[in-house]
């Protein structure tokens, strides 16, 4: 979320109500509207109602969902088209299909969607995502059409008191908000983009920051497994000279092995001829045309986030050391040693990168 969008959200959610009568009118009006809130059993059901204009902006709704602090950041990722040499190379739930061949293709060409924890929007305002109650993954990305729509979710904003029930099935009651065309034009997006986003259901979010909003766990309030991808990418800024490719590949192999994986190496014989180093649950890509690299790891995040974050950070830090060692061996000066372009395990740094002038190049 960039500064303009954050400012817009803050203005929409917290207008400067200097007139106490307006505040009183809100206090009298909100409970009545809330009592008549329409009930939806999934984010996709609510999104369909919004697309059909059956629910209007600023209307109260109750949604059965699984709130989570994890969500996607980047528009694009530098990933291999395949997870490895067989369908078991990706951890987590398997993709099921009535057609075995399509199921196998979906399994081997789909990655767990990279996600991270959003940084605060304001002092006590946070962005979260509302997933289906039965979601075992935060989403998928891949080359087959529709892969990215397998898990539909709705963004939301809330105060810290509602973060307690992250990754637990809940009934949430809040106000539907709509991002206006002006908010997009303020950040340079054309009006046509707003219509595209409206039709795809990407201009709405749920306001759970209102005083009358609720997040109530259903049943035993048990946190269950939910899987996502941890992802980092970077580039090597060579000031002079040339780095040898082999030490970088060998170093990635050792970085992945040091975290407990059994790595394999393969190279695409077409297109960019990128090299993939992979094991069951992890895969890294090293481009041979330009000095780019990325690391993607399958991770259970609902119960084992700390352990998986530590494992992922171990791989990335090890590889940054490999780059420095390779540069020293080749007597090459690298301007950005120990510097990732982006990582999902450090949202504060990642968001500052996304707001930078060079973010589009990344």
What does this structure look like?
- There is one protein chain.
- The protein has 362 residues and is α+β, with helices and mostly antiparallel strands.
- The protein is built from nine helices and 19 strands.
- It has two domains: 3-72 and 113-217, no CATH class; 227-354, Sirohaem synthase, central domain (Double Stranded RNA Binding Domain, 2-Layer Sandwich).
- The strands form five sheets. It has a six-stranded antiparallel sheet.
Main attributes of the structure:
362 residues; alpha+beta; Double Stranded RNA Binding Domain; 6-stranded antiparallel beta sheet; 5-stranded mixed beta barrel
What composes the largest sheet? 6 strands, antiparallel
Tell me how many strands there are: 19
Count of helical stretches: 9
Number of domains: 2
CA-based gyration radius? 22 Å
Helix content: 25-40%
What is the H/E string?
A: HHEHEEHEEEEEEHHEEEEHEEEEHEEH
* Global morphology: elongated
Oligomer: single chain
Average pLDDT rating: 85
- The poorly predicted ranges are 8-25, 356-362
Q: Work out the strand percent.
A: 15-25%
Strand order of the largest sheet: 14-15-16-17-12-19
- Label the structural class: alpha+beta
**N→C terminal distance:** 16 Å
Brief account:
The chain has 362 residues and is of the alpha+beta class. It contains 9 helices and 19 strands.
Question: What is the topology?
Answer:
Layout: H1 3-13, H2 20-35, E1 38-40, H3 43-51, E2 60-68, E3 70-71, H4 100-109, E4 110-112, E5 116-117, E6 126-131, E7 140-142, E8 154-158, E9 170-178, H5 181-186, H6 191-200, E10 204-208, E11 214-217, E12 227-235, E13 238-240, H7 245-258, E14 264-267, E15 275-279, E16 282-286, E17 292-300, H8 305-329, E18 333-334, E19 342-343, H9 347-354
Parallel strand pairs: 1-2, 8-10
Antiparallel strand pairs: 2-6, 2-9, 3-5, 4-7, 6-8, 9-10, 9-11, 12-17, 12-19, 13-18, 14-15, 15-16, 16-17
Helix pairs in contact: 7-8
């Amino acid at each position: 979320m960039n500064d303009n969008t954050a400012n817009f959200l803050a203005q929409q959610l917290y207008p400067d109500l200097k007139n106490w009568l307006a505040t009183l009118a809100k206090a009298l009006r909100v409970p009545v509207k809330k009592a008549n809130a329409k009930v939806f059993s999934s984010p996709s059901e609510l999104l369909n109602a919004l697309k059909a204009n059956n629910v209007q902006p600023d209307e109260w709704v109750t949604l059965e969902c699984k709130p989570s602090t994890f969500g996607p950041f980047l528009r694009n990722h530098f990933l291999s088209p395949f997870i490895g040499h067989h369908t078991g190379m990706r951890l987590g739930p398997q993709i099921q299909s009535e057609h075995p061949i399509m199921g196998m293709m979906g399994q081997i060409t789909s990655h767990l969607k990279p996600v991270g924890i959003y940084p605060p929007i304001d002092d006590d305002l946070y962005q979260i995502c509302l997933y289906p109650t039965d979601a075992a993954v935060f989403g998928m990305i891949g080359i087959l059409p529709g892969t990215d729509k397998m898990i539909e979710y709705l963004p939301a904003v809330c105060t810290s008191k509602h973060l307690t029930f992250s990754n637990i099935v809940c009934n949430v009651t809040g106000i539907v908000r709509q991002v206006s065309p002006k908010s997009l034009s303020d950040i340079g997006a054309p009006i046509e983009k707003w219509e595209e986003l409206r039709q795809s259901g990407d201009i709405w979010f749920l306001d759970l920051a209102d005083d009358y909003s609720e997040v109530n766990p259903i049943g035993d309030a048990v946190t269950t497994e939910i899987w996502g991808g941890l992802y980092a990418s970077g580039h090597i800024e060579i000031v002079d000279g040339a780095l040898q490719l082999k030490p970088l590949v060998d170093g990635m192999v050792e970085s992945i092995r040091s975290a407990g994986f059994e790595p394999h190496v393969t190279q695409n014989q077409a297109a960019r001829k990128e090299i993939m180093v992979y094991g069951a649950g992890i895969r890294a890509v090293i481009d041979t045309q330009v000095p780019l690299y990325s690391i993607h790891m399958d991770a259970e995040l609902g119960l084992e986030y700390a352990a998986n974050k530590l494992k992922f950070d171990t791989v990335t830090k090890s590889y940054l050391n490999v780059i420095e060692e390779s540069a020293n061996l080749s007597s090459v000066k690298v301007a950005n040693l120990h510097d990732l372009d982006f990582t999902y395990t450090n949202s504060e740094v990642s968001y500052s990168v996304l707001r930078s002038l060079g973010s589009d190049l990344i």
